[in-house]
Amino acid sequence: MAQERIPLHDINTEEAVLGAVLLSDTAINEVNLKPSDFYHEPHMVMFQAMLNLNKTFTHIDELTLADELNRMGKLELCGGVSYIMLVQTMCPSPMDAPVYAEIVKRLSACRQLIQAGKEIEQVGYSNPSDIAKALSDCDNKLLNIRKGGVASPILSPKDRVEMLFERYAELHVNEMVMALNTGIYDLDKHLGGGFYNGDVVIVGARTGVGKTTFLSYLAREIARHGNVLFCSAEMDSNSISDREVAQSVGVPTNRIRLGAYDSILFSNILAALGDMSERKVYLYDEIPMTTDKILQAALNMQLRHGLSAVVIDYLGMLGDEYGRNSYERISYISRKVKELARKLDVPVIIAHQLNRELEKRDDKRPHLFDLRDSGSIEQDADIVLFLYRDSYYDEAKEAEGETEIIIAKQRQGDANRIIKVRYDKKTQRFQNLVNPREELL
User: Fold this and answer.
1) Which residue is catalytic, options 4, 170, 221, 234?
2) Is 41 a catalytic residue?
3) Which pLDDT does position 1 carry in this prediction?
4) For 6-21, what is each residue's pLDDT tens digit?
5) Domain boundaries, the chain
6) CB pairs under 8 A, 24+ apart, for 91-95?
7) Architecture label for domain 11-148
8) Distance separating alpha carbons of residues 440 and 126, to the nearest angstrom
9) CATH class label, 185-432
10) Residue 4 has pLDDT above 70, yes or no
11) What is the pTM of this model?
12) pLDDT tens-digit series, residues 147-157
């Protein structure tokens, strides 16, 4: 009699997945597994306990997991605290959790196929009278395996229409509700409402024109309606906060940093801090800052607080190491930023420096070819905005206080549009020039 073969499984990889979840705050949301995907029963139970903890926003570590298993009456079944500690050491790298999970998912699908094959074999031996129904039942067994795997990237016509119906029905009665508004009315109108989920928005300008100020402004405006993760690879949290307080109070940043406030200014600063505590702008402050670290921080924030946008200042200062030169490194970072936007499904707004060569031209308004070490930046970006101010080159025009926002690229609309806003260099504030009720031509 032939010996029955043991179903496909990999205990070590299952342990690596569980270990990754214990070591990383975000791994539980990256592995896309169900308890039934694990072959070893203790692993099924441990993963279910992890899901229970995650559902209640409880940090997952060896202590909380042991407590949850004990509450479930399953701690002894799972080998006790000693096995939990062992599992934690079995993960080579929590960053590779999705890779380990893919192996566990694949082997789970193989076991399900084996089981479905046995069940289909029994249907054949039963000599069913209604063969059409029997075939349909067999098809459903395979379809259920497909549904249990990774979600299909293919949208059926019916799925698309259902999604679009809800979207257009909302747009029928409300304007600019599908995008994140920038607070600049003209810009929102030309961008079809603002920034959309998955967009990569490049903000380019020469040093000193106001990229960081503009990013801070956008973050505050978006934070009126959702949570924003602001990542600064250039300035620490105190410098960013000083600038934000100065903008709110309406005084130069160096006045805030100088100190010796009078009672009125100090009262205004306290009021600005109160506004800041209510505003949903979260600062990510870590050096070196890389795209992978930003992804982990953003996923963690998305899980715990929700996430509407990521703002990064700026691309060239990110610490990713890749390639043989600056061109290859910037191109690599650009691709990673695009992946970041797609994985998080939120807009990613990132500043980038422009080449000095434009200073040699008579017309110093930026163009796409002015993006420094551009590589794939232009290709990866959905929107490219340039900031330009005449007074940057001609102090006599300082009183005009105008900054041009140039839409140099827009994947879903017309480019080469210029939006004018008022910019107060002293207080570093942007302001609409047009009446929000006026329609654009």
Assistant:
1) 234
2) no
3) 44
4) 778 899 999 999 999 9
5) 11-148, 185-432
6) 91/15, 91/16, 91/17, 91/18, 91/19, 91/20, 91/22, 91/23, 92/16, 93/20, 94/19, 94/20, 94/23, 94/24, 94/27, 95/24, 95/292
7) Orthogonal Bundle (1.10)
8) 72
9) alpha beta
10) no
11) 0.61
12) 665 444 555 66
